[in-house]
């Protein structure tokens, strides 16, 4: 194997990815994660040879980046709220928008123990983050995908969140009748006709089951709002993430299905409405 310095390895990688119309910054991120160096440290070590084991993984990763595979799947993990979570093609890669919703839940949490339900947990990031923050809470996390739940359980075992329990269920179908203080969901909300606007890495590699919703991406908002009254305590709160074009349609769904609920819509750091907080009018 040809010996290359960090600097030359990255120059070649940038050139290769640019020629394929891919993102050169993915190569930078891949090298930082594989080497354990941050950006500044890589600059300091730029003239050193890349060790063989790292170079081998880096070259393999570049080929996969060239085929549009997300760098998080190549590494096998992604970061969410400064924690490391295992991910693979059976679960969505965590997004910043979800961090903002979870931070809102943390900020709203009263000084008492709560029962929480996470619908469509995927890799378990929401449930596990809340389980770490509030170790006395009881948290049930569900997903229709058995493969996603295997990833979630791996992450829960890694963080030893003994207060988070997983159940395979299509929305509320397999959940015993009970009332939760918080129900949270980041459901599939992308409409099929929005595929044309999406990145190839998402279309090719992230799971359709976790991405797309029928009825212009609104299917799960209809279904959850029709059933939530059976599962939310009188002073409980429902949190849901949604697409940046969906606020008005979701507002109408709540008006029709839950007219006695007050709904707050919250913007992300880009100024788009991206999640909601709903509770019964008291």
Automatic annotation (TrEMBL):
<comment type="similarity">
    <text>Belongs to the protein N5-glutamine methyltransferase family. PrmC subfamily.</text>
</comment>
<dbReference type="InterPro" id="IPR040758">
    <property type="entry name" value="PrmC_N"/>
</dbReference>
<dbReference type="InterPro" id="IPR019874">
    <property type="entry name" value="RF_methyltr_PrmC"/>
</dbReference>
<feature type="domain" description="Release factor glutamine methyltransferase N-terminal">
    <location>
        <begin position="9"/>
        <end position="76"/>
    </location>
</feature>
<dbReference type="InterPro" id="IPR029063">
    <property type="entry name" value="SAM-dependent_MTases_sf"/>
</dbReference>
<dbReference type="InterPro" id="IPR007848">
    <property type="entry name" value="Small_mtfrase_dom"/>
</dbReference>
<dbReference type="InterPro" id="IPR004556">
    <property type="entry name" value="HemK-like"/>
</dbReference>
<comment type="function">
    <text>Methylates the class 1 translation termination release factors RF1/PrfA and RF2/PrfB on the glutamine residue of the universally conserved GGQ motif.</text>
</comment>
<feature type="binding site">
    <location>
        <begin position="120"/>
        <end position="124"/>
    </location>
    <ligand>
        <name>S-adenosyl-L-methionine</name>
    </ligand>
</feature>
<dbReference type="GO" id="GO:0032259">
    <property type="term" value="P:methylation"/>
</dbReference>
<dbReference type="GO" id="GO:0003676">
    <property type="term" value="F:nucleic acid binding"/>
</dbReference>
<keyword id="KW-0489">Methyltransferase</keyword>
<dbReference type="InterPro" id="IPR050320">
    <property type="entry name" value="N5-glutamine_MTase"/>
</dbReference>
<feature type="binding site">
    <location>
        <begin position="186"/>
        <end position="189"/>
    </location>
    <ligand>
        <name>substrate</name>
    </ligand>
</feature>
<dbReference type="Pfam" id="PF17827">
    <property type="entry name" value="PrmC_N"/>
</dbReference>
<dbReference type="GO" id="GO:0102559">
    <property type="term" value="F:peptide chain release factor N(5)-glutamine methyltransferase activity"/>
</dbReference>
<protein>
    <recommendedName>
        <fullName>Release factor glutamine methyltransferase</fullName>
        <ecNumber>2.1.1.297</ecNumber>
    </recommendedName>
</protein>
<keyword id="KW-0808">Transferase</keyword>
<feature type="binding site">
    <location>
        <position position="143"/>
    </location>
    <ligand>
        <name>S-adenosyl-L-methionine</name>
    </ligand>
</feature>
<dbReference type="Pfam" id="PF05175">
    <property type="entry name" value="MTS"/>
</dbReference>
<dbReference type="InterPro" id="IPR002052">
    <property type="entry name" value="DNA_methylase_N6_adenine_CS"/>
</dbReference>
<feature type="domain" description="Methyltransferase small">
    <location>
        <begin position="112"/>
        <end position="198"/>
    </location>
</feature>
<feature type="binding site">
    <location>
        <position position="186"/>
    </location>
    <ligand>
        <name>S-adenosyl-L-methionine</name>
    </ligand>
</feature>
<keyword id="KW-0949">S-adenosyl-L-methionine</keyword>
């Amino acid at each position: 194997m040809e010996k290359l310095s960090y600097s030359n390895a990255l120059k070649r990688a940038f050139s290769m990815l640019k020629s394929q119309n891919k993102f050169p910054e993915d190569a930078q991120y891949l090298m930082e994660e594989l080497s354990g160096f941050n950006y500044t440290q890589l600059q300091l070590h730029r003239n050193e040879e890349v060790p063989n084991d790292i170079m081998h993984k880096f070259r393999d990763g570049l080929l996969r980046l060239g085929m549009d595979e997300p760098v998080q799947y190549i590494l096998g993990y992604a970061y969410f709220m400064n924690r490391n979570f295992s991910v693979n093609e059976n679960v969505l890669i965590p997004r910043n928008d979800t961090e903002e919703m979870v931070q809102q839940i943390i900020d709203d949490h009263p000084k008492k123990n709560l029962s929480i339900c996470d619908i469509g947990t995927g890799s378990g990031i929401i449930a596990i983050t809340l389980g770490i923050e509030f170790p006395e809470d009881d948290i049930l996390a569900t997903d229709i995908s058995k493969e996603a739940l295997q990833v979630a359980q791996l992450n829960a075992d890694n963080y030893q969140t003994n207060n988070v329990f997983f159940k395979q269920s299509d929305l509320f179908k397999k959940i015993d009748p009970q009332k939760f203080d918080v129900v949270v969901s980041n459901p599939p909300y992308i409409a099929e006709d929005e595929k044309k606007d999406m990145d190839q890495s998402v279309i090719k590699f992230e799971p359709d089951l976790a991405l797309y919703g029928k009825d212009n991406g609104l299917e799960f908002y209809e279904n959850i709002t029709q059933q939530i009254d059976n599962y939310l305590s009188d002073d409980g709160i429902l949190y849901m993430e949604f697409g940046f074009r969906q606020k008005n349609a979701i507002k109408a769904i709540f008006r029709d299905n839950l007219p006695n609920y007050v709904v707050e819509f919250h913007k992300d750091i880009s100024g788009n409405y991206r999640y909601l907080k709903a509770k019964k009018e008291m």
